[in-house]
From TrEMBL:
GO terms for cellular component: plasma membrane. The chain crosses the membrane at residues 20-40, 69-94, 114-137, 143-164, 171-191, 211-232, 269-288, 294-313. Pfam families: SSF. This is Urea active transporter 1. The keyword Flavoprotein does not apply. It comes from Aegilops tauschii subsp. strangulata. Keywords: Membrane, Transmembrane, Transmembrane helix, Transport. Its main location: membrane. It is found in: Membrane.
Amino acid sequence: MSAIAARPSSTHKGYLLGGLVWFAVPFSLATSLGLGALALDLPITAAEAAKGLVPPATATALMGKPGSVLLLTMLFMAVTSAGSAELVAVSSLFTYDIYRTYVNPGASGKQILLVSRAVILAFGCCMGVLAVVLNLVGVSLGWMYLAMGVVVGSAVIPIALLLLWSKANAFGAMLGTISGCVLGVIVWLTVAKVQYGRVNLDTTGRNAPMLAGNLVSILVGGAVHCVCSLVSPQNYDWESCRRITTVESVTAEDDDELQEAKLVHAKRWIVKWGLVFTVVIVVLWPALSVPAGRFSLGYFTLWAAIAIAWGTVGSTT
C-alpha cells in the first residue's frame, strides 16, 4: 500500500534504502543487546532467549526501568506499524481481488469501505486468537520466524518474476508455490527426524532442519516456475492492468513520472542494485566470514564497528 501511494520517482530508491535501513534494526540490536547479555552474564535461560527476552533483560540491566520503558515503546511502535500494514494488505486483497472482482463488480466506494472495515476487524481478531494459541502451545518467536520461510518462501521467486518477467506463467507460479511449500515442509520434518530421532518443536526449530526446509522451499518454488514459464511463456503485456477501473469516477492529470521510459529506467535501476546488495549481503559477506572461523579480536572489533555504524546511519536516515 505504501508503494502504491508513493511517487514513482522515489518509490524504487526509497524501498531499497528502506530495506538497508531496516536491516540495521535486527543487526545492531542483536549485536549490541545480545553481546551485552553475555558480557553482563545475565541469568537468561534458553527458553527465555527463544521467546525474545534477551533485549529487555539487557536494557533493564543497563538502564533500569527507563531501559524497559524505551524497549517497550520501540516494540509497541514496531507491532502497530507491522500489524496495521498486515491488516490493510489483507483487507485490500479481499476487498478488491475477491469482493469487487467476483461478488459485487459494481460496488460503490461506500460498500467497499464497509467491506474493508469488516475484513480488518475479522482478521485482527483472528490474528489475536492465533497469537494466544501459539503462545499457549509454546511456539517461540525464533521458531515462528524461521518456519514462516518454509511455508511462504516458495512464493518469493514466483512473485518477483510475475512483476519483472513478461514470460512468467500464472499456472507455473501457483504450481511452484504449492510444490515448493509441500516439499519444503517434507524436507524440514525429514531432516529433523533423521538427525535428532524425533519431530517436535525443539528439533524442528534447530538450524539444520530449518536451513534445509527454507532452501528447498524457495529454490523449488523458483525452479518450477521458471521451467513452466520457459516451456509455456505467457508473454503478458500488462494491458489488463491498464484497463483496471477505479472505484470512483475521479481522474488525475497525466503525470510525467508515469511515462513508460522512466518506469523502465526505474525497473532496471532497482533490479541492478537489488541484485548487487543481495549478492553482497547474502552471499559474499557470509562467505568471507567462513574462513575466519572463531572470530579473532580484530575481526570481532570490525563486526561490532560495522554494526554500530550501520545502526547509527539507519537511525538518522
